[in-house]
Design brief:
- The protein is mainly beta and about 100 residues long.
- The chain has 1 helix and 8 strands; from the N terminus they run E-E-E-E-H-E-E-E-E.
- A 4-stranded mixed sheet has the order 1-2-8-5, with no helix packed on it. The protein has a 4-stranded antiparallel sheet with strand order 4-3-7-6.
- Strand 3 (about 30-40) and strand 4 (about 45-50) form a beta hairpin.
Length: about 100
């Protein structure tokens, strides 16, 4: 069965910008959250965002990180995150092809 977001994650108003991605349980460091972007050259930046990637807000001090895995960009936690906290990541996708 398809889930647009992993179990335990939800979207609500963010204190950072618009809507954000939050957890309703405690997450351990290095928890794999899923696919945030799929490579597709038909899109301006060469990727299409999934719901998981569409609601993660930027932070200069993030608690999650994007990482490449073949034709996918995935999201994982960088440290323990407490229930109710917003998941954030440093945006770098616009520079991904130059890496």
């Amino acid at each position: 069965m398809y889930r647009p977001l992993p179990k335990g994650l939800f979207i609500k108003e963010s204190f950072i910008e618009g809507l954000g991605l939050f957890t309703d349980n405690n997450l351990s460091a290095n928890t794999q959250l899923g696919v945030s972007h799929v490579k597709d050259d038909r899109f301006e930046d060469g990727y299409i965002r999934t719901p998981l990637g569409g609601f993660v807000n930027h932070s200069d001090i993030p608690n999650c990180e994007f990482y490449r895995d073949g034709d996918y960009i995935k999201l994982r936690t960088m440290r323990n995150i407490n229930e109710g906290n917003e998941l954030t990541a440093e945006y770098w996708l616009y520079d991904i092809e130059s890496e």
